[in-house]
């Protein structure tokens, strides 16, 4: 079923202990679309400047991403510059130039308005609702957000949350949004704000999925080859939503597989700079890593004789 | 099969955001023994002062812990005082009084020398080897250590590591020991130091098990009721080693169940102060939480049609 994404497209300049790149393809909607495109068609709403290389647009279109909602405006493309230290866990933003992204007013082409799956990337919550108002009757809406909106536009964010089915945040954002340190209690509180499902991303430690009745813990794949974490969270969301949209179901079993596939896509995204690894990725590699995740995390049912005769205990 | 543990017994004074306790039962060997005792008999080697309440000794003996190796000396028992802030992740040590523990020279009663499973708690690596020299032919030896020994007695620690089958450390310790930030690379390096298995404990995020060929990721149970993290790591090791010793096998399937059971015991230990929760814990509760861990982490094999017809990708 059609999947719509609205978010940023950027030219990133990234420095890690392993190297640096200037003005390479980045942005939340870019990683999301590419990751989701392995599972089905994606409709993209974003804006770029007149300096944006056409080869990137062609790359996305070549992956089955509908770019009719990609607006090209006079001016420069959004630029982000960041550095990662050895721990690779936290991005240190060196420079942000919003450029044409500062005036982004998402407009959906008529052909997008029937989209059934919608992902509202990390943009102003006012704009997230502006997108929702243009979609006729979405079946499943997920959104992302960040500390900046939680702090500066809390009321608007809460209004958006009342209208979405699912929220993706990291653990610090979950704590901040719920004003509660314990992540389980924070999750329970957030589920009273509107969404019926919540993913708490924990970087190299994996992710937790909370629904009203269920909790699911997905481990991250322990990588020796972690290279550039930029885009990991967006690739995760793209793998998740891409799989969900391809199934047309949102029961717990599908969500569990979706969160694992999100982790699979994220684990590939971070193996090289920018979208380099996602560009060469194949479905067979996705299948193989999904199987590795299973081997990594599964364990037997206990035998009936968990406790030996003669052991203490009640 | 008999399981021997050497380590500390302490009287802890603990402060958390939820309350405080003075001079309550603590120490690595105490948590370890109690957790392991659910699976079979434990032989304890430790030292306490003449101020140590006899009721604690009787508690351990009542759980099937052989206390003939518990030495009672003139002087005061080891005391540790610590505080946890709201994140509950890191203990801030306020005071350490080694007292009789400063002169601890572990001596094994004759009846302990045939022990097949051995856990060398976090003590001076010289003393860890002193214990090993008194055990005739152990089948499986595991040890714990900490940043203090990694830094101040590295050569001695490496000598101990050459003689053990398994090491338990947290992720910061693994990085420090291997001098390598990436935890996968750090683990690979540590496995060249001697142990054939390594557990990297990650607190609220779970644990990783590395062997020469396998990696296993165990999630921690997401707790709303986290109360006092003291003893979590020792309860984890106790559950792990207790189960291993009860099986008399160390293949990968048994180790996977053992690491999950370690997580189960740790998840109970932190629900109340000191050993209060472990004291009321039952085998049925352990079985039930093991089953909850499975529900928490397991997901289906992918259907054959992971990728829908018509999706992009190769």
Q: How does this structure look, described?
A:
The structure is a homodimer of 314-residue chains. The first copy, chain A, is an alpha/beta fold and 314 residues long. Chain A is 35% helix and 25% strand. Chain A contains eleven helices and 13 strands. A nine-stranded mixed β-sheet of chain A has the order 5-4-1-8-9-10-11-12-13, sandwiched between helices. In chain A, helix 3 (125-132) packs parallel to helix 5 (154-161), helix 6 (171-178) packs across helix 7 and helix 8 (232-247) runs antiparallel to helix 9 (252-269).
Topology:
The structure is a homodimer of 314-residue chains.
Chain A: E1 3-6, E2 10-16, E3 19-26, H1 28-36, E4 42-49, H2 54-62, E5 65-73, E6 79-84, E7 91-97, E8 117-120, H3 125-132, E9 140-144, H4 147-152, H5 154-161, E10 166-170, H6 171-178, H7 183-191, E11 197-201, E12 207-211, E13 215-218, H8 232-247, H9 252-269, H10 276-280, H11 283-297
Parallel strand pairs in A: 1-4, 1-8, 2-6, 4-5, 8-9, 9-10, 10-11
Antiparallel strand pairs in A: 2-3, 6-7, 11-12, 12-13
Helix pairs in contact in A: 1-8, 3-5, 6-7, 8-9, 9-11
